[in-house]
Amino acid sequence: MVDFHQHLNQTHQGALSQRLSVTRVTASACDYESPEHEHAQGQLVLALAGGVRCAINGQVWMVPPQGAVWIPPHHVHTNYVTHNAEVCMAFIAADIGLAAMPTGTIAVTEVLQAVLLQLADLQAASAVNTEMGADEVNTNEKEQEYEQRLMDVLLLELPRAQPQAYAIPVLHHPRLQPLYQQLLAQPQNRDSSQTWAERLAISERTLLRLVKQDTGLSFARWRQQVQLLHALLQLAAGKSVQQAAMDLGYESVSAFITVFKKRLGTTPKRYFSAPNKGEWRTHKPTKD
Q: Where are the alpha helices (DSSP H) in the chain?
């Protein structure tokens, strides 16, 4: 298994010479966030374990366990992984035909995951053989044909993957940027809309209107979504439900579980034990 830090320095350069490069990476017992960067290829980040978050062109996406995020070519992004994370990354040439796939998290089927992991294992073995000078191994036509067939399946499966709404809705308006940045950094902040309006030197009515205009959500619902997506990352990193609830300022664990179940359709414990993770339920807007 390749170390995550080493991977950042080595894999991308190696991927430039291949049309499709897949590798598995593990974190180094500490949380890590890459600096802003972009790739000429599209990038798929599959979360096998732990918590993964990607900020892509200002939009923040949480990657649920056994889910993935697609980053189109030349999209500026950062990748954040928790200390216990294991990911599978695929770099796919822009001219293969997936560049038009929209940015975002996707549900990963068993077939898609199996193909990605098999390709990662095959390419890792090929790299080891090359380093050892065993070039004749790479001339095996049956092995090459098998790898190519797997690539074909991957390119068929990816466009069919279902999108999942694990993004924090962006506040675009310039006057709301202090609110957006602080809630991303401190999701436990529970200052009222009136308090924020005073801090931003606007009326509360204007604040509520601008948040609704940018996100389609009420202020309370938007903040709740920020908090729940943050909670997903913390829970995936190994925090207990009680710790996540307390960190976000919930008065009780049961209150947190109630909100979690309303938005994700199940309890935190069942969510992380289920083979197919839930996604945001599409309820009609509620009064806050």
A: 4-15, 110-131, 141-157, 177-185, 193-200, 204-215, 219-236, 241-247, 253-264, 268-273
